[in-house]
Amino acid sequence: MTTRNQNAGIAAALLGLAGGLFAWWRYNNATPEEKARLKNKVNELGTKLKDTYTEVEDTVSDNVATLKNKLAKEQQNAADQAEKIAS
C-alpha cells in the first residue's frame, strides 16, 4: 500500500520524466537557429555560474585567512597573559 508521500514522489517523478521528454522532443524538432540560441544561452548560464562560484570561493578563502590571523593573535594574547600570570 502506498502512502501520500510516496504518491507525491511518484507524481513528481512522472512529471519530471514528461518534462524531460517534452524538452527532448522540442530540441529535436528545433531549427538550427533555435538550437544555436539555446546553446548560447546554456553557455552564458554556465559562465555566470562559474564566475559566481569563483567569487564565492575567493570570498571564503579570504574569510578563512582572516579568521586564522585572528585566531593566531588570540592564541598569542592568551599565551602572553598566561605567562604574566605565571610570573
UniProtKB/TrEMBL annotation:
Residues forming coiled coils: 57-84
Domain of life per record: Bacteria
Keyword vocabulary terms for this entry: Coiled coil
Name this polypeptide is given: YtxH-like protein
Organism per entry: Leeuwenhoekiella palythoae
Lineage: Bacteria, Pseudomonadati, Bacteroidota, Flavobacteriia, Flavobacteriales
